[in-house]
Amino acid sequence: MTTLIPIGRDYESLVQEDRVHSAVFTDEEIFQDELERIFHRTWVFALHESEIPNAGDFKRLQLGRYPVIATRDEEGGLHLLINRCRHRGAQVCESNHGNTRRFQCWYHGWTYDCRGDLVGLTGPEGYDENFDPTQHGLTPVPRVESYRGFVFASFAKEGMSLSDYLGPTKPYIDIMVDASPTGELEVKPNVLNRTRYRGNWKQVGMDGYHPHYVHMSVFKIFSKRESTTGSAVGALQLEDPFSDASTSRTRGFPNGHAALDFREQRQPHADNAIAELRQSEDGARYVDDMIKAYGEERARDLIAWHGDPHLGIFPNLQLIHGHVRVVVPIGPGETEVQMYPVFLKGVEPSINEKRLRSHEAFYGPAAAGSPDDAEIFERTQRGLIADIDPWVPLARGMHREQVDEDGSVVAYISDEITQRAQMKEWKKLMTAKK
Amino acid sequence: MTQQLIQAAPEVIRQGLVDTGTQQRLERFLALEAALMDNHEYDRWMALWHGDDVLYWVPCNSDDQDPSTGIAIIYDDRSRLLERMMRLKDKTAHAYRPLAKLVRSMSGIVPVAVEGNEIEVVATFVLGETRVGVQNIWMGRTIHRLVDTDDGLRIRSKKVLLLNNDDAMPNLTFLV
Fold first, then answer.
1. CB A6 within 8 A of CB A425
2. Are the CB atoms for A199 and A350 separated by under 8 Å?
3. Closest listed residue to residue A137, CA positions, set A75, A76, A71
4. A138 with A171, same domain?
5. What domain of life (chain B) (predicted)?
6. Which CATH number fits the domain that encloses residue A362?
7. What ipTM score was computed for the predicted complex, to two decimals?
8. Rounded to 5°, angle at Cα A8 from A6 and A11
9. What is the CATH number of the domain that holds A119?
C-alpha cells in the first residue's frame, strides 16, 4: 500500500501547520528520504543499558537502514557498531542477543572484538604494509549518549547534545525510572512483544482522541471489572481519562516529542492506589520503600503516575504504561513495533509479575489493545493511497492551545497537539540543509 | 514439546498409553475443537473447558518463557479467558471484524502421559488464515491436558507453541 507521487516532494508544502498531505505516509521516495534525513541524522533510541549488563553481552538492532550491534566491553564501555564486515560487507552478527568475545565474519574469517577492533585478519601475508588493520574495525556509530539508562544514537558527527534534544521531557522519563525505589529499571532483550502491521511508522504515536473508538471494546470490558487501580494500565482508571471534561492533557514539546499528560487526572487516585498496594505485604513494602527513597509527596506523585509518562520521543521511542516501545520503520507501508515491559529494580517479584500481567492484557498480537491499533493503522494505509483529496487535517484544538512554563504546548486530551508536534519536527528535519 | 515425544518412554510410541478406542476419541475431540475454533463458535469452544483452574497459555519469545519473569502472547486463567470471549464476540472490536476465514489441520496426535482420568496429549497443527485479502500461514504444536469426564473429554490446560513466537507477527485475532 504505497505510492509514488507525481507532484514532486516539496516538504514545505506537503506539511502545513494544520494539515499534512497523505503522501508523507505512503510515498516510497519520501520514506527513503525519512531514513536519510531523520533516522540517519537526529537522535534515535537504541537500547536500554540494562539489556547488555555484562562484559561480552551484545544485542542486534536496526537503526534506519543500518544494522547495528550494541556491545559491552571488559571495562564496562558500551559500543554501537555497524553490523557490516569491513571486508566484503557481510553481517558479522546474526543472533538477536547473547554473549561473546568475538564477532567472526563467515565469509573470509575476519574477526572483531567487542570494541569492534579487527583482531583476526586471515592470511595477513596477502596484504602489504599499506594495509592498516586499525583502520578496518567495525564502524562505530558516530555519537552515542544516554539518559538514565536510555541509550540513543546519532549518525550525524556533530549536532545538538542528547540532553538538549530531550529538553523538558527528562522529568517525564524520570517518572518511569523512579517508579523503582532504587531509581533503576531493567529491560530484558528477550522479554518483548514484536508485532508487524502494514501501515506507516508515524501512525504509532500519542493520540488521546482514538481510545473511545479504536478501543471501545476494552472500555466496555474493563468497566465490568471491580477495580483497575494498581494496574499498570493506569490510563484506564475509574473515571474516563480520555474525556475532554477530564483534567488529562496533551502536550507537545520541542524537537517533536509529545505526551498524554495524566498528572492532574491521576493525582486524586493516589490514595486509592496506595491503599490497594497496602493490601499485600509486597505492595506495602513497595509503598514504604518509595516514601523512604523519594519522600511522602514525591512518592505519592510517582505511585499515582504508575510509572507511565505516556511520552513519545521523536522519532522511534515511546514510554507508555509499563513498557518501552520501539518503532522500527520497514517501508512506507510496513512497520515493526517492539514492546519491552520494564522491570522495576528494588521491588518484590510479585510487583513486577503483576505489571507483566497488566502489560499482557492490553499489548501484544492477541491482547485487548494492540490488535485494534494495528487494524486501524492498516485500514488507514489502505485509505490514504486514495489521494484524490489528499489532505489529512490535524487541526483539532488549535484554537485552544496554551504555552506552559516549560515551553511545551498544552491542550485538551483529544486535541491533535501530539501529531502537530511530530509533523513540525518532521518538516524541520526533512527540509534542513545537510 | 518435540522433546516430550523424542524423550518419551518407549511404550508411549510402541504400544501407546491408551487403547485404540481412546486414541480415536482423542483425535475426534481435537478435530472438534479445531472445527469450533475455525468457525468462531466461541461459546461451544468455551464449554470444552473443565474446572476453575484452567490455563490457556501461548508463550512468547520462546516455548518456555516463565510468565513470572517474562510475558506470554496469551496467559489466561478462567477470568481472563472469559474476558477474551467477550472481546472475540464483541462487534465493536474491529480488529476481529470481518472475521478471519480459517482452516487448520491437526496431526501427530500422541498421548504422552496418563494420570488418573487426565491425559496429556501432544499434537502439531498447520493453520491457514485469510482476511482482508491477505493469507497467513500459522504453524505450531499443542500440549493439551484433557480430563476424561462423564460428559466426555474436556480441557484443563492448553499450551500452544507457535513456530514464530520469537518473531514479529501480525494480529492473532482468533483462537489457536
1. no
2. no
3. A71
4. no
5. Bacteria
6. 3.90.380.10
7. 0.94
8. 135
9. 2.102.10.10
* Min Cα–Cα distance to chain A from B22, Å: 33
Per-residue pLDDT of B123-135, as tens digits, reads 999 999 999 999 9
Residue B63, pLDDT above cutoff 70: yes
Kind plus residue range of the DSSP H or E element containing B33? helix B20-38
Classify residue A405: in a domain, yes or no.
yes
Average pLDDT over residues A41-69: 98
Q: Which residues of A lie closer than 8 Å to B, measured between beta carbons?
A: 188, 190-198, 214, 216-218, 220-221, 336, 338, 341, 349, 352-353, 356-357, 359-361, 364-368, 370-372, 374-376, 378
Say if A388 falls within a structural domain.
Answer: yes
Partnered with residue A393 across adjacent β-strands are: A19
Q: For residue A53, is it within any domain?
A: yes
Q: Which domain holds residue A120?
A: 44-154
Query: Which residues of chain A neighbour B93 with C-beta distances below 8 Å?
Result: 216-217, 372
Topology of the domain comprising B2-162: Nuclear Transport Factor 2; Chain: A, (3.10.450)
> Closest chain A residue to B98 measured between Cα atoms?
A375
Judging contacts by C-beta atoms under 8 Å, the chain A residues touching residue B170 are 195-197, 365, 374
Number of domains chain A is built from: 2
pLDDT over 60 at A232, yes or no: no
Task: Tell whether B73 lies on the interface with A, counting CB pairs under 8 A.
Answer: yes
Q: Tell me the pLDDT of chain A averaged across its residues.
A: 94
Cα distance from B50 to chain A (closest Cα, Å)? 23
The pLDDT tens digits of the residues spanning A320-337 come to 999 999 999 999 999 999
CB contacts, 8 Å: B172 with chain A? 365-366, 371
User: Domain check: are A181 and A138 in the same one?
Assistant: no
Summarised one tens digit per residue, pLDDT across range A30-52 is 999 999 999 999 999 999 999 99
Q: How is residue A36 annotated by DSSP?
A: I
**Where along chain B do its domains lie?**
2-162
